[in-house]
User: Fold this.
Amino acid sequence: MSEARDLVLIGGGHTHALLLHALATRPLPAVQLTLINPDPTAPYTGMLPGFIAGHYGREELEIDLVQLADRAKAHLILGRAEGLDRDRRLIQLKGQPPIRYDLASLDIGITSGLPDIPGYAEHAVSAKPLGAYARAWERFLAALAAGDAAPKVAIIGGGVAGVELALAMAHRLRERAPEITVIERGRLLPHIGRRARARLVAHLKRMRVHWHEQAQVAKVSAAALRLADGQEIATSLVLGAAGSRPQEWLQGTGLELAAGFITVDEHLRTVSDPNVFAVGDCAHIAHAPRPKAGVHAVRQAPYLLANLRAALGAGAWRPYQPQRDYLKLVSLGDQSALGEKWGLTLEGRWLWYLKDRIDARFMGQFRT
Assistant:
């Protein structure tokens, strides 16, 4: 009997969660499986706006990685990866001994942090990773209830994510006459169709959300955000939702990177190392680049499973080709949503319930 090989999953992102779910019923042959993640749960991005708006409880958007790892017979290590020694095949962990691997897969997501802005690290929170934002939002709500904070929020980043979260927060705080401001360095909602943009702008006006276009943030302090033109916006919570940044420790791995993201081939395997795979937002698909979106992470799971099997000599390689367009569902704060695909835009409560069913089906897999 051949010696078992070590497969280590770094990060509990959506692709890895679905992979573990599949391995619970169809394990890989002769494999010791390990999952590394900083927390025992992983938040599901699709339900975050609903949680912020108050439609879901915190526990409803958390994937229980402890239960999932147990079902898949995987060893769960609660820790944060901070390096990869590819020569010795070791994953370096913060404050813990390194972990050996034969095959490794990274699904560590991205950050929306803005470290170049003075005061950001001390006085703001990033929308990604989601766990920190969810905790900060709960603390902010508690401070409001205690009278220790004002209902004033500034969001750095006026893309779809920033606008969606602005509408969610405006809905949650609607009884408190909130002052919510979105700051965008370019044009508001630059990456969405004209009709969808017009409707989302109308909803911002309806919810009395303010915005600044062509505006640069110069500094964040404990009680205000200052723009480059000198204007100050009083705020009790500053949220960063501007674009996506890769995890900085990837720079030291020696893997080929594209703007800091791990370059992978059509089999989701890094172009630098046949023993390392990468999926989700931390990966750059060289043959078919796409904007970061959760839908790609979900659809990569069966391809990753097939290709890990192939790498272990137990199946055929399966190339992944991401779709060019997909249904984008944007929550509007209340229980309604806007949908866009192929340039068509629809809106209504029925889209919210469609989204809710999709999310419930996704999360239901992990609660079996």
Remarks:
- The chain has a mean pLDDT of 93.
- Residues 120-244 form a domain with the FAD/NAD(P)-binding domain fold (CATH 3.50.50.60).
- The longest strand covers residues 334-341.
